[in-house]
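ARCHIVE CARD
CATEGORY: sequence design from structure
SOURCE FIELD: tokenized fold
FIELD CONTENT:
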């Protein structure tokens, strides 16, 4: 039994050995895993209800009861930060994941399909890529109203063309490779070629881009929530907390600092993780590291 477990875990450990040897990549991975654990375990580790009001204890300084103090309504800042992590990561991972899947599917079809279909999909990519993200987000929010669903829709519509272009370029390069031509000569189906040979070779670059786009989406959500166009109060959000801290900066600057630090840390975490994944998934860079 132990030997079987070792045989299963050894390839995984060997695959991630370059990332473990990269200090910045491991630092980013540690930050990302920490934030993910905080988001998942929010109901267990949150000391208070993040929406519970206690106006008699408003603007309390950090103390043993409230480690990060309280806001203008007496709500526990630490609890709101913990639940804000769940809001930020949930929205970012969901929207970027959906956009990535759509871009992956359309990019494979565009790169491997007939020329007329490729031209049509490129036209769609260009049409959505020409939309400025912030202005498009403001226009959609004005029509549909603010909310998490609206933000996810905007991010998906603006992001999937970039992923589709990336996958299309990789697919065009691989479709003329010898192993693909050999499969075609042997009579392999298009589905087998796409899912068995092309997909594993194009998924690496898109994972790198997705990991680096997650903090961008989190910043966008925080900015729109700061303008009261994102996550609706009283749902905890780092952007809403920044706005509350800005309006009450003279009474208590702790809220602005507390809401700003997670944004900085999560951006650093996903950026360093993306760099580490690039070194891990790019064979040329990986060989250079192993030397």
């Amino acid at each position: 039994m132990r030997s079987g477990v070792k045989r299963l875990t050894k390839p995984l450990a060997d695959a991630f050995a370059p990332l473990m040897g990269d200090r910045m990549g491991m630092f980013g991975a540690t930050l990302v895993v920490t934030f993910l654990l905080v988001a998942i375990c929010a109901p267990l580790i949150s000391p208070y209800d993040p929406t519970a009001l206690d106006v008699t204890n408003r603007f309390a300084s950090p103390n043993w009861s409230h480690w990060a103090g309280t806001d203008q309504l007496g709500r526990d800042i630490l609890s709101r930060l913990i639940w804000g992590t769940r809001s930020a990561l949930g929205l970012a991972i969901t929207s970027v994941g959906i956009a990535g899947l759509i871009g992956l599917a359309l990019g494979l079809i565009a790169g491997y399909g007939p020329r007329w279909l490729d031209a049509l999909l490129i036209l769609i990519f260009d049409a959505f890529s020409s939309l400025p993200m912030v202005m498009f987000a403001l226009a959609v929010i004005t029509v549909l109203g603010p909310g998490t669903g609206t933000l996810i829709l905007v991010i998906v519509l603006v992001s999937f063309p970039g992923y589709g272009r990336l996958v299309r370029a990789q697919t065009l390069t691989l479709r003329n490779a010898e192993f693909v031509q050999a499969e075609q000569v042997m009579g392999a189906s298009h589905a087998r070629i796409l899912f068995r040979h092309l997909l594993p070779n194009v998924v690496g670059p898109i994972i790198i881009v997705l990991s680096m786009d997650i903090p961008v989406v989190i910043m966008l959500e925080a900015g729109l929530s700061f303008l009261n166009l994102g996550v609706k109060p009283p749902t905890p959000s780092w952007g809403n907390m920044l706005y509350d801290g800005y309006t009450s900066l003279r009474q208590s600057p702790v809220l602005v600092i507390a809401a700003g630090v997670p944004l900085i840390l999560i951006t650093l975490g996903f950026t360093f993780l993306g760099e580490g994944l690039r070194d891990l998934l790019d064979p040329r860079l990986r060989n250079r590291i192993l030397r």
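CARD ANNOTATION: The radius of gyration is 23 Å. The domain at 25-39+68-286 is CATH 1.10.3720.10 (MetI-like fold).
SHELF: design records, drawer C
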